[in-house]
Amino acid sequence: MAHLAHYRESHPLPFVITHWINLVGFILLIFTGFYIHYPFFPNFMSQARGVHIFFGFVIVINCIFRVVAAFFIKSAPAEGTRTVETDIHSWLPQKGNRHQLGAWIKYYLFIKKTHPLGAKFGVPQKISYGLIPFLILFMGYTGLCLWAPAQQVGFFSAGITLLGGLAGVRVWHYVFMWVFIIFIFIHVYLANIEGLSPTFMMFLWKEHPGLTYDPETGTITGYDDLGGSAPKTEAAPVAK
Amino acid sequence: MTRSVIDPISRIEGHLRIEMEVTNGKVTDAWASGGLFRGMELVLQGRTPTDASYIAQRVCGVCPVSHCHAATYAAEDMYGITIPNGARLIRNMVECSQFLHSHILWFYNLYALDFVNPINALKADIADTASLAVAAGTSGADFAGVANRLSAFAENGQLSIFTGNWFDATVGGSAAYKLPAELDLIATTHYLEALRYQAEASQISAALGGKMPHIMSSIPGGTTFVPTEDKLGDIYYRAKEVRDWVKGTMLPDTLAIAPYYLDEFTVGHGPGRFAAWGVFDKASMDPAERYLPSGMLDVNLNLTDPDETKFLEYIDHSYYDGTGGLNPREGVTKPLYKDYDVKDRYSWTKAPRYDGKTYEVGGVSRMLVAYKRGVKDVVTYVDALADVLKKAAPAVFGNASEKDLLLALDTTLGRAAVRNYETLYVADLLVSLTEELITALKEGDASTFTEHGTGNGEGVGMWEAPRGALYHFERVKNDKITAYQEIVPTTWNVSPRGADDTPGPIEEALVGLTVDDPEKPIEALRCVHSFDPCVACSVHVSEPATGKQFNTVTSPWGVR
Amino acid sequence: MTTEESTISPLQARLDARGVSRRTFLKFCVAIAVMAGLGKAAAPDVAQALEKSTSGKLLPVVWLELASCSGCTESTAQVTTPDIASVVLELISLNYSETLSAAAGVSLDKARTDTIAAGGYVAVIEGAVVRGWDGNGLRIGGMKGTDLVKETCEKADAVIAVGSCAVDGGWQAGYPNPADCCGVTEFLKAEGISVPIINIPTCPVNPDWLVAVLVDYIMLGKLPELDDKNMPSLIFGESIHDNCPRRGHFENGEFVYQFGSVEEEKGYCLYAVGCKGPQTYAKCPITRWNESISWCVEAGSPCIGCANADPTRTTRNWVDTMTPFLKRQRNMRIGDLYFQAAPVAATVTGIVAAALVCHGFGMKAAGRTKGGADFEPIRTYDAKKLKQAGKEAPTTPINEGNVEKFTKGGDE
């Protein structure tokens, strides 16, 4: 067993905040969305709609901010290192994980016994994170199509016609919410199945000791105990 | 020997073509052809029984309520539920108001123009008209105003719906339109009034069903209409208004016009066999006990209960692939258009037979069955009408047997007369049903809905539309319709020939009629109108499995 | 007839003859003015224009019934302000109508061809165009229905498609569209006939809207303002939901969940039993039906969305896009199989969740749940490159226990 040290540089504070907003927004949107789809208990409709519409805007704005910020804010391109570069690089294919899709799939199918070395995100992760902003924008767009004040605006009414009328838009909006739910399941699972330290990092901004990694050479360079306790094994750590 | 063709037949619902062979001025053979195929049963496939109650009624804009109710009864039969008292009363009331609307509109606005000449009304003397109205016991009105309005209309030179009329047609060499100008003016005045009262009758349907045509409230389990004293008070007022008009205007008009056209009580006989499935449930929900009960009358007017297993639909002369007849439950039909040929296939309508024979359906059938079942008011009305005939034409009907007198109602004008009495019966019924519902509401016996689970199995709805017996059948799996069938009134009446080449009721009724001008066969037109054909819903395909040869691209969105 | 010298107009005389008060007439004019987008202030102009137009030449109208149920004719016969008699006698000259005309057969068809020859008429089309069997699915007067439409519409000043069937095929175009029906717009487009079209959907057509459009046309001599689907914007510009008298209950979250319940008696919102009001644009709650006596939702039925139409796509007919009527969401369809998105989506999600749980047990069995597997010493890709260069690639997996061995002094 082994994992890389988790440094704050991999998830700078603004992104911890946007992640928090996403978490809260998604939960509220999914709950109120289900309620608006079918009001399974009485006396909550205007609240549900208010929350849904408000957080719909919040999520879309948050998403746009997150994407724009990726071009300005620097973050570590991998775990186990404090070197930083512009964040967008770790979204796009990196030197560190080119040609690795097969390796990752093999790893998760237990065909490959060892953990692939690579960038901050594995390849499947990267693909899904790359698509999520589009999904959010699509949900925002279809959501606005279903929102009466926007329906008459040409930009949205054209979309309504394209997607099969309002009844069709409802289905798109609804089905893609389930895509979100599936994404969240997989995301939460993969992030935590090998230990909860990524969650502590992401939400509490808490660093965690582990192996260090050099994204330049793509090799493990040692162990960082964060100046704390010794590793659980007998071998002495090597601080870089 | 000439051919006379009326196509399109106007002032009916839907598209009907009548072709007749005329020899020496008499019709010797006739063919009725339904001109439209739409395929309602296919569209209902895969949808829920509740959706079917909304969609099925859209097969006909004249009697949507009846189709809606036949569909709901079929669904309730399948679910194994009965509707509560409030729903029964409300449905009866909607149905009543539709009957009133349909009968009034049909008699005055569709049928009467075969007998009444509004252009001739211009010659009327206003004072004489008023006194004639009093003498006839019918309601007066501002006859001068109507005359003014007509002359303004005539002077304008644009004839609107009277363009290309047949008012100059003849029957047997004498003028076909025989009413004196004053009576023409009275009838025309009431033509305009009727437009208002048919609308008022529809307003009762709309008050109970949201809108009319195509009501919204009757669904499997009962009705979505919640009765309140407020709404019922309004309905009660309107019901009485319509009833009073039917009693004070429609019936006297009928009796005033009839003496001028006594010949029409002797021609246009149908097959002499009558079928009614019954309409307007009593609390027992037994079709034989309905306010207008179910029953079959054979040629000797012997009464039996209808038996659904004796239905056969033949396609030998219809635009469907195959020959022979099948019970609607097993029906297999494949649309197959060929060129119109009365010797081969000539109609989109199928040929339904009961026990191998043609049957006539409609107002006259309902009234005769009710008469035979001893429904009190109906017996009174039919006897009264028979008396009128005896007095007006003693030479013809003076010594006629009861059977002959009853069969005199199955004629071109007899059908109209007896239907107008039915209108009065239904109008009275609507008033008393409204009273019953108001009482039930006060006593807390007006619940409107019975819940049901997921449906599986088969269900049949047998009911009556204003123009005759209506049958819906559905087979359901997991609340989805897998097969749907309709046999509608006009399918019986406008039926083409069956396997044995026996003509359908209208085809039979036309034989023997007088035709002077093959371009304007007015007597034949009157006869066809007397059946009040409603062709749209009579044409449909019965079994979906084979009919799907059209290019429809499928996708999960059901679109594209 | 009233003479020129009389102090009241001919229209007024005719109104008087029918007992229609001036007040009722002006009320009607206000309704028309508002419907036509002129605002209430224009009512006197409307009255004046009406008086003028009804005393002159009437607008010739040919009313064609195609694949229809005659419901739109029936519905139009229910119009009360002005009543149908005024419409057919004093507003328009209805020269051809299978349901209302006195003539029949050849005489009736001649009325139609004469009107076409004279020109300057409006064609009202009720019902869908049947394209099946090369147009033989509908035959009128020995003619294919399709030819009849072509002939009648080609020379018309304007075509008014009344009812959902004429707009996009309506229920008759519902899957599997057995007679291959379509709307007038789609048919005329395919035939290359260009003529102004006004679409007035709903099943049946609301007569007040039709009359408003006719009056508007007669009065101003031009079509009303139309949206991108050629529907009058003022009629189809607001959703039923937004004008619904039960909207307050919606906002409060007060719903009917079951017919026959207490909630139903209280007149709560029908959203939970599938009301299509939020996705249907039409003025039903304001115009209402049958002399405004009621409308669908007032009768306790959820809106079934019959105003939804797309004139160029028959597959978007309201029956296919709105069923099941009592469910919140439309059915999707693959072939003959109808299904709801919700159970399918939930099932797929459930399968994914179950797969993740299984995978989790696998991860546990593989000992990866406490920190993951050991790292590969070198990326597979780099190892390959080393091999190509003829060098030996390291093979021992790295973990916290042996990391020192591999990292001290750089390489192994």
Provide key terms for this protein:
A: 240 residues, mainly alpha, Fumarate Reductase Cytochrome B subunit, two-stranded antiparallel sheet, two-stranded antiparallel ribbon, 4 strands, elongated, B: 560 residues, alpha+beta, 16 helices, disordered C terminus
What does this structure look like?
The complex is a heterotrimer of chains A (240), B (560) and C (412). By secondary structure, chain A is mainly α. Chain A has nine helices and four strands. Chain A has a two-stranded antiparallel ribbon with strand order 1-2. In chain A, strands 3-4 form a two-stranded antiparallel sheet. Chain A is elongated. Chain B is built from 16 helices and 16 strands. In chain B, the strands form six sheets. Chain B has a three-stranded antiparallel β-sheet with strand order 1-2-3. Chain B has a three-stranded antiparallel β-sheet with strand order 8-9-10, with helices on one face. In chain B, β2 and β3 (26-34) form a beta hairpin. Chain C has a five-stranded parallel β-sheet, with helices on both faces. Chain C has a two-stranded antiparallel sheet with strand order 4-8. In chain C, α2 crosses α3 (43-55), α2 packs across α10 (207-220) and α3 (43-55) crosses α10. The radius of gyration of chain C is 33 Å and the shape is elongated.
Number of E strands of chain B: 16
Radius of gyration of chain A: 21 Å
Percent in strands of chain A: 5-15%
Instruction: Give the SSE string of chain A.
Output: HHEEHHHHHHHEE
Shape of chain B: globular
Considering residues with a beta carbon less than 8 A from a beta carbon on another chain, report the largest interface and each chain's count.
Answer: B-C, 115 and 116 residues
The helix count of chain A comes to 9
Strand-residue proportion of chain B: 5-15%
The CATH superfamily of chain A is known as Transmembrane di-heme cytochromes, Chain C
The number of E-state strands of chain A comes to 4
Level-2 CATH architecture of chain A: Up-down Bundle
CATH class of chain A: Mainly Alpha
* Computed structural class of chain B: alpha+beta
Helix content of chain B: 40-55%
C-alpha termini separation of chain B: 54 Å
Quaternary structure state of the chains depicted: heterotrimer
